[in-house]
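User: Study the fold:
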Amino acid sequence: MNHFSFESALIGVLPAVALCVYVFFKDKAEKEPLGLLCALFGLGAVAFVPSIFCEQLILKLIHGWFEPYFTLSSEGLKTFASPSAEILYLSLCAFSGFAIIRICLLWTALVLVTRKNKSFNYLFDGVVYSVFVSLGFAVAENVYFLIQNDFDLLLPKLISSISCQMLVGVVMGYFYTMWNMRFTANRIESKLIKIGLVKSDNIKSSAPWLIASISLPILISGIYALAGAKETDAVSMLFYFLVFFVFGISFASIRQMASLDGKNTRYLYRLIAKGHPELTPAQIQQAVEAETDGDAPAEAETSEDVSTEAEARERVISSPEASKDAPAEAEARERVISSPEASENAPTEAKASKAESAEPANARIEEADNR
């Protein structure tokens, strides 16, 4: 019998909110905007809705494929023809019908909201964002489970779901941050190659980090779903051991990442300096600041820049202030010329000018002799 109430729904929500508060205060360097975090939490909850429809569709397809290999009892339990068929069926349901859909929705929501957000300027920020999205999804999942089932079954589901989604958030956030940093470093390197400061792409590709940010959370979610689907005493004990183990890993990882937090620009600087030791610190700093500020790296002076400077110089010369200062400058020049030091240096300067004027004449004489 279903006993859904406001109090039971609150029990499904509060643990996830408490964990979000814990992660929020672990961000020591710079607190994230509450509006952004609430939006991520809400998007995670909203992502649960399309995941339900997609999961039901895929599970029906898998059920149809394996229908010849099992029989249904009066209680609705499946009896498979062989253990291998059962394992394959449960694995497909856990990964294809559960993990892949959920993680892809959560990852998409995370990237769309935070990828180019100006608040994403520290390494730990990606973990905070990802945990909020994942725990928002866990809250929606718990409330939906409570609507469909008895309250007595909520506590095991509550503990297991939140622990899994928290670990998913930590792992996804870490690899998402590393992918974002290396992707930005690769883009800076491409710009440096275009302007000729570097000749080759020495910084490793960001693709492995992108793959890990999706595949590892899928693996965690799939194992969680597979362990929960196999209803035996041994598997149940292993499942709950895994749940508490996951909680321990999550908290330890959050503490370690928060202690090692630093600005994204500092990490980008290290990546570029390691890949291109020939660059000066000033060049690396300029390239990083240009990328993070949205500007292009400074290039060599062009003819347009020269012409612009020439026009500015002409405007200064033709300005009224310059014309007023011209007589004073002429008088100063006359005083310098009439000084004793200038008269002593005059013969030397005259000889030098004569030598300079004689060089073209000597060259012409040599050409004539050669002819």
